[in-house]
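Here is the promised in-class demo. Please do not try to memorize the tokens; focus on the logic of going from shape to residues.
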């Protein structure tokens, strides 16, 4: 049902179109793009959006902004409820030019769900007013730190993709450098230049993003910690709380209830 709603919203020619809905089992949407800008919001659960520049975790009370013609894939984790707004390309000039995660204000949430209720076009004045509110909210929404930028250097990207496939890998940076054919010092310097994070910080961020996905799928805190390579569960809980402001258990409960997860 949600896919049909999204298709109708994508195909329309209005300044603003919206759809809302959800599903239980995890669902994967392959890489694609739209001529319109898209704001994909999460009301409950979590989705992961992949772009050429990186991967983005979208927890409850947050949304990811995707500019027009920006290729992306989408995967939901656990019991997902959300909404999607499509903005005509001409109206995207004042909106962010690159993907980003934003915090969804109560006003934006309410406006998006109201737009998704439209069965037929309402009076032009009402549509235009609501569209203006939504566009202003997108333009001024604060960014949230749930992204994982990917390096573009082929050697660094090879390492990043190998770690994404096995976040629990315990090789040292020097081992990864030798495997990819790059000097350790060059790896360290270029990782910061291309992602904004040191190699160690990037790996830690990767594991925390994967932890969010696993928790949304219902995995226990202990199994998540061990599967991600943390031999000390208490250390993992402390790291998670320092990064997201809540313990993994409290964070998962808030996500299932559709509450904002600090970050």
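The designed amino acids, position by position:
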């Amino acid at each position: 049902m949600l896919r049909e709603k999204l298709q109708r919203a994508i195909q329309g020619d209005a300044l603003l179109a919206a759809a809302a809905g959800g599903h239980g089992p995890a669902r994967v949407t392959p890489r694609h793009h739209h001529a319109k800008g898209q704001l994909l919001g999460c009301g409950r659960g979590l989705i992961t959006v992949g772009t050429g520049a990186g991967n983005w975790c979208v927890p409850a009370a947050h949304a990811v902004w995707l500019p027009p013609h920006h290729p992306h894939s989408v995967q939901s984790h656990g019991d997902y409820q959300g909404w999607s707004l499509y903005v005509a390309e001409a109206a995207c000039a004042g909106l962010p030019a690159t993907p980003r995660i934003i915090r969804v204000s109560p006003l934006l949430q309410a406006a998006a769900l109201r737009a998704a209720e439209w069965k037929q076009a309402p009076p032009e004045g009402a549509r235009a007013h609501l569209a203006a509110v939504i566009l202003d909210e997108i333009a001024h929404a604060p960014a949230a730190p749930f992204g994982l930028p990917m390096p573009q250097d082929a050697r660094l990207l090879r390492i990043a993709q190998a770690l994404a496939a096995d976040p629990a890998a315990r090789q040292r940076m020097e081992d990864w450098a030798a495997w990819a054919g790059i000097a350790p010092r060059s790896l360290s310097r270029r990782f910061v230049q291309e992602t904004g994070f040191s190699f160690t910080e990037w790996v830690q961020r990767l594991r925390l993003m994967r932890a969010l996905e696993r928790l949304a799928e219902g995995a226990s805190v202990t199994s998540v910690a061990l599967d991600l390579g943390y031999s000390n569960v208490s250390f993992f809980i402390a790291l998670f709380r320092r990064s997201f402001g809540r313990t993994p258990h409290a964070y998962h409960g808030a996500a299932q209830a559709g509450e904002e997860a600090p970050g």
